Amino acid sequence: MEEKDKRVHFRTCPLCEATCGLEIHTEGNKVTAIKGDTLDPFSKGYLCPKGFHLDKLYSDPDRIKKPMIRDGNTWRETSWEEAFEEVKRGLQTIIKKDGRDAVASYLGNPNVHNLAGMLYVPILLRALGSKNRYSASTMDQIPKQLTAEWMYGSDFSIPIPDIDRTNYFLVLGANPLVSNGSLMTAPNMRKRIKNIQKRGGKMVVIDPVSTVTAKAADEHYTIIPGTDAYFLAGLLHTIFSEGLEDLGRAENYVNGLEDLKQALNDFKIEELSLTCGIDVHIIQKLAREVAKTERAIVYGRMGTCTQTFGTMNSWLIEVINIVTGNLDKEGGVMFTSPAAGSKNAGGKKKADRFGRFHSRIRKQPEVLGELPISCLAEEIETPGEGQIKGLLTVAGNPVLSAPNGERIEQALSSLEFMVSVDCYLNETTRHANVLLPAPSALERSHYDLSFYQLSVRNIAHYSKQVFGLPEDQLDEWEILLQLAAAVMDEELGVDPVRALDDYAVMQLIKKEQRNENSPLSNKDPAEIFSNLSHRRGPERMLDFLLRTGEYGDFFGEVPSGLSLTVLSEKYPHGKDLGPLKSRLPQVLTTISGKIEMAPSLLMKDLTRLKGKRDKNADHLLLVSRRNLQSNNSWMHNIKELTKGSNRCTLQMHPNDASRHHIEDKSMVSVESAVGKIEVRVEVMNDVMEGVVTLPHGWGHDLDGIQLEQGRKNAGVNSNRLSNDRMIDPVSGNAIFNGIPVSVSRCDTNKDVVG
Ligand SMILES: Nc1nc2c(c(=O)[nH]1)N[C@H]1C(S)=C(S)[C@@H](COP(=O)(O)OP(=O)(O)OC[C@H]3O[C@@H](n4cnc5c(=O)[nH]c(N)nc54)[C@H](O)[C@@H]3O)O[C@H]1N2
Ligand SMILES: Nc1nc2c(c(=O)[nH]1)N[C@H]1C(S)=C(S)[C@@H](COP(=O)(O)OP(=O)(O)OC[C@H]3O[C@@H](n4cnc5c(=O)[nH]c(N)nc54)[C@H](O)[C@@H]3O)O[C@H]1N2
Ligand code: SF4
Ligand SMILES: [Mo]
After folding, report:
1. 718 lines ligand 2 (CB under 6 A)
2. 614-745 fold
3. What is the distance in A from the centroid of ligand 1 to the CA of 168?
4. I want to staple 147 with a disulfide (CB 3.0 to 4.6 A). Which of 73, 314, 571, 666 is the partner?
5. pTM above 0.85?
6. How far is the CA of 109 from the centre of ligand 1 (A)?
7. For 162-340+584-608, which CATH class?
8. Which residue range or ranges hold the 4Fe-4S Mo/W bis-MGD-type domain (predicted)?
9. 3-class SS at 170?
């Protein structure tokens, strides 16, 4: 290998929300080393084992590299032309026969870690014109987004913990030392938490499991799964009844506070405490600490979102942060000022994006433009007008990720036509008729458009491709635009990708110009367009977004401002744009212009806290757990990340084990209302009595998948137990935590790898 082939690349890791900077050494088309980039102003050299092995995804021999068409159980590689022709034929047949809503879309999590997904999927969905939009959001953070939409006006106006300046961090249902943080982009959470403690502050964790994060905390309290709303109502009750409220910066901007206070008056703290299993005096102590500590945060994530009170939890957490004066304050929770993307400010909206239409079968309201994933299977299965006959998946694996995976699986196999854009032939994409290969992360450029909107500092970091695309590989944005062209009725000429891309950029320009305060409002749109003409694809859009963003150069109007050229040439390790800044009131886009403290559907939902919670004494409550080496369902084909002991186990408390005559390491059968699995048990004190935990994203033993390594350590699909009929009734979000299950010894106790 010639010396000149050796190169060093700096780029952010696109795998999780932490956005760590990587230093990638290459020789020719091989990666020789990956390290943490010590010059990255945000991650400062931190990385986790997944980032360290990012190249293994690129070099995985099982990764799909050619478009493929399925004929029965056999796949054949084909040309892009034939693949898109086949997509056009398959989807247009359904559209002509049954209308556009008969073709659904499902978007998986990696879309938000990918510029193509962020910028071009919306164009594809508009071209498709179907109401049947589904995504991983409705089994994740939609309660947080809906709460932000109702309270602050926009679903992306989510206040972020200002963790680097806080003195008190109360964490519910999150395990950031394993997940690396969510809706709180902050590489190296361990260090950030240690720094809170070094400053004399503290972290308190509420979790049914003594997780790595709980162990790093100053205090940990277990909670009965699914009952956080009772605990949070208890905190609020204490704050109000002891007169501890002080709204601080939010004082003049709230609506409905008195109604909320009145509603909470009805509750008795003793009853709330009994239901959640946390002592009254602990609830009161924590309430006083949150209210009295200068700079405190209450933060809740997955464990609080994907449970029966998902939206109520998200709401009560916002309310507590507001009434203790911690919203929009240093060391409290703050809105970001991202360099590109949603400006989360400016103007009042006309209506909430909720309930504008309903699902056909369950009549579940639309939430932020989509329908809950828990409705997908029934919409495919149930005949009649409006039935889903075709599906397009982009970067998603609902068979392993979504509730009642087995039902989804069956539903997918009954579709008339399915198209998937993915890197693997896996549990979901094996049902596709056409599978289109997405390039791997190292072959595309990157900018964390989503996560810099959710980050604990304002950051901008653009990464160039590490490797060029192979000659016969389309970039993901080109695939998405080709798909858009295939489902449109209009003729787009000889270069449909170019036509759609140009159109999309023109739309962005016009949108910016509609803002009369924009320095571009009086410019000729054609001139702006031609200013961008040396770029195409995501780079052109990103350049425009950066130049017209908070720190933008507005095409020369602000000479020291940011552009893509400045960012990529001057700041190869990323640019730190400083700590979060106060943004009230301009961040508010609600109809009233105020923070809505008492959204009507949530006020109504409070009555649910009054009913008795029935619990079958024989049932254990299943919750989910993550592992540092995994990333949802799709990184189990990497040997380096799956070696060692079997991670797909049921964790159980010793008292529950002995009550059910279950021995450590034995095989057990776990049964819920919808399914049954067999899995190996790990008996341990870390899990609260009455609770069992399983990881999700396993079950790689299905026929016809191309995951050789994954199959060796297949594990079982925990989502055969989660119930698509159990949802958070407000947002429709899926429930993965607090699922009643019965656990018993396996009759045979045969040596199955679970
Ligand atoms: N029981 C339980 N279930 C859960 C959860 C839980 O905690 N417990 N968590 C939920 C959460 S938070 C989420 S976000 C969902 C995730 O749900 P999904 O997004 O449906 O599942 P993933 O496992 O992330 O699958 C990602 C897919 O994208 C493909 N892929 C990876 N990179 C790319 C790319 O660059 N381009 C393209 N086109 N494809 C790519 C992968 O091969 C894989 O098929 O799972 C949910 N499911
Ligand atoms: N290593 C790794 N990192 C990841 C992922 C991954 O799969 N692996 N996935 C990424 C994705 S898509 C997401 S969304 C984020 C999620 O990241 P986090 O929000 O940090 O979620 P989890 O790690 O699932 O932690 C949820 C915690 O909630 C607890 N819990 C369960 N039920 C309850 C309850 O009723 N009340 C309370 N208070 N706690 C409860 C669980 O025991 C668990 O410790 O992680 C991301 N990062
Ligand atoms: S923490 Fe997340 S962003 Fe950082 S290296 Fe690991 S997977 Fe990548
Ligand atoms: Mo997620």
Report:
1. no
2. Barwin-like endoglucanases (2.40.40)
3. 32
4. 314
5. yes
6. 5
7. alpha beta
8. 6-62
9. strand
